[in-house]
Amino acid sequence: MNSEFLIHLILWAPLVGFAINGIFGSSFSGKTAGFIACLGPLTGFVSTVLLWSGFDQTIQINYYRWFGTPDSFSVDFSVMVDQLTLLMLFIVTGVGTLIHLYSVGYMEHDKGFVRFMSYLNLFIFSMLLLVMGSNLVMLFAGWEGVGLCSFLLIGFWYKNPDYNKAARKAFVMNRIGDLGFMLGIFLLGLEFRTLDIPTLLSSMEHIESGDPKIILITILLFIGVTGKSAQIPLFTWLPDAMAGPTPVSALIHAATMVTAGIYLVARMSGLFNLAPFTLDVIAWVGLATAFVAATIALRQNDIKKVLAYSTVSQLGFMAVALGCAAYSTAIFHVMTHAFFKALLFLGAGSVIHGLHGEQDISKMGGLRNAMKSTHLVFLIGTLAIAGVPPLAGFFSKDEILAAAFSHSIWYFVILALTAVLTAWYMFRLYFATFHGSYRGSKETEAGIHESGLVMLAPLFVLAFLSVVGGFAGMPETISSKHLVSDFLKPVVADHAHSVSHSFEYILWGVTLVLLVLIVWLTNKMYSVNSAEVFRSGSGWVGRILEGKYYLDEIYETLISGPLRSTGTWFKNVMDPGVIDQAVKLPGLVFRNAGVALRPLQSGIISWYMISIVLGLLAMIYLFLF
Amino acid sequence: MSPILLLILFSIFSGLLICVVDRKWAPHLSLATSVISLLYYLFLLIDFEPSGGAAHLFQANWIPGINASFSVALDAQNVLLLLLSFLVLPMGILASWSDTVQRNREYYALMSWGSAALTGFFASQNPFSFYLFFELALIPFYLIVLLYGGAYRRPAVFKFFLYTVFGSFLMLAAIIYLYAVVPDTDINWATAVAEKLGPDNQLWIFGALFIAFAIKSPLFPFHTWQADLYSEGDRPAVMVIAGVLSKMGVFGFIRFYDFVPSALESMRYVIIPLCIIGILYGALVAWRQTVMTRILAYSSLSHMGMIAAALFSGTMVGMQGSLYQMFTHGILAASLFFVVDAIIRRTENTSVYGSAGLAQANPRLSVYFFIIVLASIGLPLTSGFIGEFYMLWGLTQTNIWYGAFAGVSIILGAIYMLRFYQKSVFGEMQSDKVRNFGHLILAEDYVLVVVVILVLSFGFFPGTWMDLTHQAFAQLIQK
Amino acid sequence: MENQIPEIFNAIPHTHYVLLSTILFVVGLIGVMIRKNVIIVFMCIEIMLNAVNLMLTSTSAYYSHAGGQIMVFFTMAVAAAEVAVGLAIIVMIYKNLHSTNIDVFQRLKG
Asked: Is the ipTM of this complex over 0.90?
């Protein structure tokens, strides 16, 4: 089939689905709406496969000139598909389809089912705009669009003010990043007179590495990345975003949207390569994020919160890969992470569904008997994220570690430590949920049930992908072909060094030993019958971790609190008290002058007469003498 | 006869007609005439050639002694704003549709006359007709607010009037001075004036004009009339005031751009920071307000600050964005007032907390409302984004710190608009008034659908209009 | 143009006219300032007017210039009108308040 037609189909099918469900949805039955909604990403996925099978070169489609100014810049409404886009398309439409399918089961009893499905479709459309946009403004449009959908879906249960707050927080935090992104776009446009990505990248050749302007631009773009991809200091919105329904967490806050930042840096890799300083910043921010989030995850009891912090931590891993200029490695991890994290979230969703909304792991336990299938896929997910060979996470994480090692020993040490923590909190989660004995109340125990097929089918597909997904990127020691990085080579400017084979073998050996140790320890600690171990600890370390380093509180005290009180002060004091008074001042002067002069107008005619005479005399005096 | 003059006369005449027809037909007649004006104007646009200078020019000598003439025409600078005023007027009339009984014939006649004055204002081609219509436009809206406003309308409208008149006098003095300096008002008048004035005198003229226009817009710190008027005024009229009248000030800056070029150049570094303070100030106050109309007032203050800042950036891109945003913000401000009016009329509560749970009571209105909110926080693919993108680009081009600080408004804007939306639409239904909210009437549905179409089409297809704004400033920038 | 002034006018020096009208004017002025009865005040105003008239006519005659005398006609016409209106007001006030004291006019102040 004509590949341009396929691209039209990929991009517009979800939007059509959104429009149909959004406008006529109220008259549809749940089944119809669900079917229409699934059709959007499914069409996209099938088209992507067809497109891929006949793909040989970058395809760019210009729909029309969006806006622009002669001799300044011109922005087309245009999309393009190259290798990087294609890979992202697979992730977005593939995982997207699975999660749509899952949602049909998960949300079928919700009153807002049609609304939910249409939002999901809108999200897919925005995400496609993001990955297919051939200029930075198109990319930005998708970027903001996914932020909007994230806002809508986090606050999906809009009656709850806390959820609304979380939604707003996510949107605003993203907007902070977006401002940086936007300024970066402006500076790029002013510098290169174009916003078209291929043109931009091709004009990089003449730029010297370390140009301060490029460093400023890349730092600004990276600020955008910290917002969307939940890096320090803007990551606090992501854990709160768990207020949304679980499929949303899986699709938006694990598999696709949050990786947009990683995609952006990989997309602009030619630019970032020119700014070594920025790459260092990215790497250090990534390291800090990975480590901080992993430590917080150690002490969380909400099943979704653990996964959320794990996502933040994994995004940190990807950022480190970017910082080491190993862009295709980062994208590889985006891919494997999409598989196993979506799997874990959907598995968690299945658990929550089975327990009628319970999310606290201290009240779970022993679910391996009641929910056999969920248990199996969750275990696969856990093994994959912990990096057990030969599952997906093992290969991508191994590659990141190798890149970090080749770059700096410190990167490697911190990252390896974080990987250990990752395995620890994931096995803690797994054992607490599925082993030991049930710790909830007796009444709820009877209600535990396995989820239906429509929810399990996507889980099995994702589990399969989590097992085999890693083979797309095997290290040199095993295979000379690295499918992902070979595929991406034409568009992503990798800059990473390789490591020696002996290092790889040592790394794997140590990993295995550590993993066995962790599994043994966590099993001992958390496969328990009482909720004692989950109580909040008394040590200060534990308290800080439970308090999430008190970052929310710090932001509240340092930034939003003062801003809010400034606003209140402006509203209550400055506006009516100072500015308005200053405006009223002339009026007041005249009014008081009037009051002061009023007695002169006494009404006693003799006085008027006398004053006339006096005035006359004064005038005579003035004029004559 | 020039079609532009025809449009002005048509509005005046239809106002007179409305005064004499049967009372119950007054709203219909006024709606019909406003729609006819709109359609006729759209018809004019079909073969309008922006690069060709002023089209449909009508000029008549007025005061020969000082060469003052009355002259109106359609040109690249005013096309969008005329469109705005013709669009907002029917919206305003439709907003009054559900309780036409309370409003007399005079109300609709005043609306028509207001429209005539606005048309004349935007179409005016020289300072003298500019001043004439600047003053004329004040009267109908003053009277409407005075006659039909809320409980505390008197002090509010008095403040508005005094403020504006104060500014007008300064402007009048400046204009008289312009005529006195170079009495020969031919094509190169502005340049001749600018040359003859010299930098020092230009500063004075600019100062006088700035205060007049800053009051009208309003810009910080001349804004204190705004919130009172917006919350006490008759809301359909406030739609026109917030949507169209508030653009008169900034439009004035465009019109007088040539007269004081060196003053603009030297004052840029004072005015832009002032505007940016206004942007942030307005946004912070809007954040803490709980009265819906006041939130809109301060959000308007913030937006107008941005529009003015971008205009003063002196860059083509910034000015284009500024003009485009004037149009967009006009539509959005008017439609936000429209929505708020629809809510307040039914819940009889002006607080944002008064209509909690609206999403359940009337999902349709909530969706329209949401789209308008998104456009006003500048989400891509809505009309608000294009203007904001251009304006911030222009400011960044002047100085990256301007771009950064003005850009904070996209964060604060998201905060206050989303807070506003969530508090007033989401949550549990609290009051019976919300529970019995009822459907939208047909008039409301029409208006909101049109607004949504406008918002999306101006977001997806701004190309033609953007070229138009480029034409508008091509000559100014070259000089 | 000399010797056109009739002899008779030279019999009384112009200074006398000036003095007389000044005295009359001052009398009227003081009357307006200190008297309380409206009628009297009114009469005092008339005295002042007539003092001015006298001044105008005499000076006009002395310099044989008709302008001053024409002015007097205007003054008299205006004075007549003023008397008509003023007396009417006074009568109305007296009818309503039974007083011609000037202090009642205080009530007119805003």
From this structure: yes
